[in-house]
Design a protein that fits this description.
Elements: H1 2-17, H2 39-42, H3 49-60, H4 67-76, E1 96-104, E2 107-112, E3 116-120, E4 125-126, E5 136-142, E6 145-150, H5 152-155, H6 160-166, E7 177-183, E8 186-192, E9 194-202, H7 211-214, E10 221-227, E11 230-235, H8 237-248
Parallel strand pairs: 2-11, 6-8
Antiparallel strand pairs: 1-2, 1-9, 3-7, 4-5, 5-6, 7-8, 10-11
Amino acid sequence: MSNDLENSSASLSQIIDRPVLNDCWNKIGVMGDRSCPELKNVIHCHECQVFAAVGDSLLEREPPLNYVDEWISVLAETPVDEETQNNETIIKTASAISVMIFRLGNEQLALSAKVLQEVTHPCVIQPLPHRSNELFLGLVNIRGETLLCASLSNLLNLNLESIEEKSSTPKSVNTQRMMVAGYQNDKWVFPVDEVYGIYRFHLNELRDAPVVIAKAAQAYTQGIINWQTKKVNCLDFELLFYTLNSKIL
């Protein structure tokens, strides 16, 4: 009898400690029957204020007991690589890179995750009179912040029209996204056709660009990596931002 009471009290404690979530996205949202009327405005539950409020409540809640001690134990057991010397001092080296892989037309490109700040659904681009052109598209409002929007396809001289004509089967899901990237005091928004996610590569996997590309007038390719049997051009974000500033600002 006492064991039953103990189990019952333990279960009750777990229920009390567990946050009550309004997981409407699993019922009427994108994970449910999609009957939520707000989907017409926000497109995806990730852009909804209810989803954001639940996320804030999870981040602001009090951590459970022994949470910090458990993570200290986990991190202490994490194996170290050859970057560790005999005196167990970890040397900070650039042995690996993290990049966001995305698509423009049929071209797979990569941008360093160090400059990536956000990926969002397409927003309305407000052109500026006498300033907007094929490279500088205009202004975009991202979460209340007005940012400059530029076309990477134009900057990289990608012929997307001929690529789109080759595709005869339209996709039922809109994969277009906007990437927000920032470097030093500059921040830009780049419309892309699809975002695959962030991937990590060792520097040994980064191959030099072909001589033809390296000697081009606008050499934005820092190196090439193999990803899912495809060659992905890693963009030089420093040169990218420098060129945008010199051409537009």
